[in-house]
Amino acid sequence: MPAIEIEHLNKRYGATEAVRDVSFAVEPAEIFGILGPNGAGKTTTVECVAALRTPDSGSIRVLGRDPRDRALRALVGVQLQESGLQDKLTVQEALELYAACYREPADWRALAAGLGLTDRLGTRYAKLSGGQKQRLSIALALIGDPRLVILDELSTGLDPRGRRDVWALVAGLRERGVTVLLVTHLTEEAARLCDRVAVFDRGEIVALDTPAALAAGH
Ligand code: ADP
Ligand code: ADP
């Protein structure tokens, strides 16, 4: 059974066809990239997988279930571009709050340390830099120790060192057999991290292959 199976997904916003007849399957423990320029329909696709949007048509199965199935909350971690965190929460409070939502949470202190957040535990969300907010949103996606992680533009706002940190984190997920659906507009990021990549353009998949095969085809 694929970890994610999408068949003939369509989603429009008014006159905009954001996603058109998109189909792909992500295998368990695979790191699957969605690569493409701004406006290609990447975020809309993963928002449908995360049940944050309702497809106009097509079908999506996540770990064999309907994306809206409540049982998925304990199995799927999601990092999106807007966190929706309260400005007044400190990093530690946010980590503890999220950890409390799970029966067997990951060790939030270790996660914070791995993401270079240890010296920011007492800092309120509003006072974090863009890169620090990004690190926190990744930590929160991982705090439930999920089997499947959705990461939307994980290196946004990070400097080269921060980028290396989060890339190492994804490599660690690979070693633990976690399935990752990773959205990026950076070819280098997709090539380094992903087993296979779906290239999106104007709402459609225009290529789907390993990074090496995609690079050889150009
Ligand atoms: P990407 O993540 O690849 O940048 P998106 O899925 O965000 O692409 O957007 C795909 C298309 O849908 C774009 O043309 C975008 O402007 C449009 N779009 C995205 N979200 C909305 C929305 N909430 N309302 C109207 N149009 C939207
Ligand atoms: P931003 O540029 O948004 O402030 P950075 O990625 O630069 O975010 O990280 C903020 C600070 O944290 C930087 O000064 C960087 O040197 C430091 N930093 C980055 N990664 C680590 C880490 N793994 N451990 C400790 N400190 C780190």
Automatic annotation (TrEMBL):
PROSITE patterns: ABC_TRANSPORTER_1, ABC_TRANSPORTER_2. It is found in: Cell membrane. SMART domains: AAA (SM00382). Keywords: Antibiotic resistance, ATP-binding, Nucleotide-binding, Transport. CDD domains: ABC_DR_subfamily_A (cd03230). It is a peripheral membrane protein. The keyword Zinc does not apply. It comes from the Bacteria. GO terms for cellular component: plasma membrane. This is ABC-2 type transport system ATP-binding protein. It comes from Asanoa hainanensis. The lineage of its organism: Bacteria, Bacillati, Actinomycetota, Actinomycetes, Micromonosporales.
